[in-house]
Amino acid sequence: MAKSSSYQPKSQANTPESVRTLISQQRIQKRVAEMAKEIRRDFPLEPLHLVGVLKGSVFFLTDLARQLKGQISMDFISVSSYGQNTHSSGEVKLTRDLDSSIEGKTVIVVEDILDTGMTLQYLLRVFEQRKPRRLRVAVLLDKPERRVAKVRADYVGFTIPNEFVVGYGLDYAEKYRNRSDVGVLTLQKARKKS
Ligand code: IMP
Ligand code: MG
H-helix or E-strand containing 37? Predict the structure, then answer.
């Protein structure tokens, strides 16, 4: 499920659930190739360890990995959110840890979207304690209007307005991940019972 469960797409009366393309497949592929070059410019020679945040980052990570020259390894982590109204020290919970140590590695955390920033803030805290050589963040999408936590990404594919988006890994109730583009989702407004 989407991690921010309290965060819903807009709904409109008499409109079936629909997706309007915001970023085309061609634009995504072009930008991902550019991002790979930006990353390699900063780290020309060293092996890069890509850490994908499941499940939303999977399409972005595999395309990025294929565009990156040189030695690459990858691992995955999974987190879930407690939502905004819960107590507890952190709103994010680790549900699947990495397979291998990141100590001494040049780690690029790969995320689908930077929204409130709570997920990334939590992950960066966890990873920093594990003593990577370097720790950087690549996100396909950035929604700065929604930011709560003080975090930023080193590599951003596209900055987008405050809309609920799906596709290219991003889901709504597990749907739409397999779209090749990124689109804005509109839901049908529930009818009032008379
Ligand atoms: P953050 O902790 O609020 O930055 O949440 C980031 C996570 O929330 C992403 O990795 C997504 O799983 C989910 N998310 C945030 N915005 C959207 C959206 O517009 N569509 C789908 N999922 C979203
Ligand atoms: Mg995600």
Answer: helix 25-42
Provide the residue type at 171 as one letter: D
Q: What is the pLDDT of residues 36-87, one digit of tens each?
A: 999 999 999 999 999 999 999 999 999 999 999 999 999 999 999 765 544 4
Whole-number Cα distances in Å, 26 to 35, 36, 58, 154: 14, 16, 18, 23
115 is a catalytic site residue: yes
pLDDT (tens digit per residue) in 123-146: 999 999 999 999 999 999 999 999
Q: Of ligand 1's atoms, which has the minimum distance to the CA of residue 146? A: 3
Alpha-carbon torsion, ordered 51, 132, 89, 151, to 10 deg: -70
pLDDT tens for 134-179 read 999 999 999 999 999 999 999 999 999 999 999 999 999 999 999 9
Ligand 2 centre distance from Cα of residue 112 (Å): 5
Burial label for 62, CB within 10 Å (0-12, 13-18, 19+), is: middle
The residue from 42, 97, 112, 115 that is catalytic is 115
